[in-house]
Design goal:
The chain contains 16 helices and eight strands. The protein is an alpha/beta fold and 358 residues long. The protein is globular, with a radius of gyration of 20 Å.
Length: 358
């Protein structure tokens, strides 16, 4: 029994926080699935690294160009969605075995629509219908514009992965949007039992910012991110045990599971499995970079722990730390980082076009 399998046995789904053509073509992704990986996520940063760092996409790009496709966004969608389909095929047995609870691959809307509700809905719906697979999720950022998009997309039956989630108050809005979308489906007479969603709560980035504001010898260093996530988990437990939720559950609705994202350790002074071991709980997803996954399988502790200690958050104001300001900054910065990656990605595609069309 490997540590990854033990982690699954206590109720944690293990997703991989990367995806690439090389990973798929080499068979490495299939081997990871055989070891216990039951999902995968992608985003503009991941695809930018995959496309700029490899020649694996060049042949397909050349063929697409020969067929008359020249617009960088469409070329990106064409090659990236093929990766999503291939990964979804590997994970389809997981989806079938778990009756639609697990086995998902996520693809993110482009960051240029993050602050536009109508454009987010339009693009997410186009991606969903284009993929036409039950075990994919469309990632929508938890920006103010993203909240109504989550509700509308859920009402249409789209599996939504809410990303770039940092603040507790925003998490409450995300859960409400999901429940409201399901309630719309009830009114429309639509089924609820195959609508899936996860709320991706970003973890380690909070410590990266908070630690800079704390004294070097502060006992709070490296504790704020997990404390914030633990509070989020308790909010999840409350919201998904309410009478409002029970009415939907009675109709077959599935809980919107918390997903711990950004779980790779940024500070080398901390354990490389800090954000896995500290957030083990039944019913959550942990999406790990490959290095973190391998580290946990080598020396992680998979025991279930009660997520009850968030004392660090309570004393932050006395330490001069404004957690709301930190999470607001991280939300804005997260969208900006993805936008820069998307710009880099399209520039890379344009450069490749120059070579391919000579």
């Amino acid at each position: 029994m490997t540590r990854l399998r033990q982690l699954q046995q206590v109720g944690v789904s293990i997703w991989l926080d990367t995806l690439s053509r090389d990973l798929l073509d080499s068979g490495d992704f299939r081997r990871l699935a055989e070891r216990g990986v039951t999902g995968a996520t992608s985003n503009p940063t991941i695809f930018a690294k995959a496309i700029t760092g490899s020649a694996a996409y060049d042949r397909q790009l050349a063929q697409l160009v020969a067929d008359g496709m020249r617009e960088p966004r469409e070329l990106f969608f064409a090659i990236a969605l093929d990766d999503i389909r291939a990964a979804a095929a590997v994970l389809r047995p997981v989806y079938d075995r778990t009756q639609g609870r697990d086995g998902f691959v996520s693809f993110e809307c482009t960051p240029d629509v993050a602050d536009d509700t109508a454009s987010t809905i339009k693009q997410a719906w186009e991606l969903w219908t284009r993929l036409n697979l039950p075990n994919v999720m469309i990632k929508v950022p938890a920006t103010p514009a993203g909240i109504p998009a989550i509700e509308e997309l859920t009402a249409r039956g789209v599996n939504v992965n809410i990303t770039l989630l940092f603040a507790l108050r925003r998490y409450g809005q995300v859960m409400d949007a999901y429940l409201s979308g399901l309630e719309q489906r009830v009114i429309q007479g639509e089924p609820l039992d195959r609508v899936a969603s996860v709320a991706s709560f970003f973890v380690s980035r909070i410590d990266t910012v908070a630690d800079l504001q704390l004294a070097a010898d502060s006992p709070l260093r490296g504790t704020i991110a997990t404390a914030n996530a633990r509070r989020a988990y308790r909010l999840y437990q409350q919201r998904f045990s309410s009478p409002r939720w029970q009415r939907l559950a009675d109709r077959g609705a599935r809980k919107q599971r918390p997903l711990w994202a950004s779980t790779g350790t940024k500070d080398p002074a901390y354990s490389d499995v800090r954000y896995v071991e500290g957030l083990i709980a039944d019913g959550v997803v942990n999406t790990m970079p490959l290095a973190t996954l391998e580290a946990f399988d080598d020396h992680g502790d998979p025991r279930l722990r009660p997520l009850g200690d968030d004392a660090g958050v309570e004393v932050l104001p006395a330490a001069g730390i404004d957690l709301d300001a930190i999470t607001d900054e991280l939300e804005r910065d997260g969208v900006a980082k993805f936008a820069r990656s998307y710009t880099e990605l399209t520039a890379c595609i344009e450069d490749k076009l120059q070579v391919l069309t000579r």
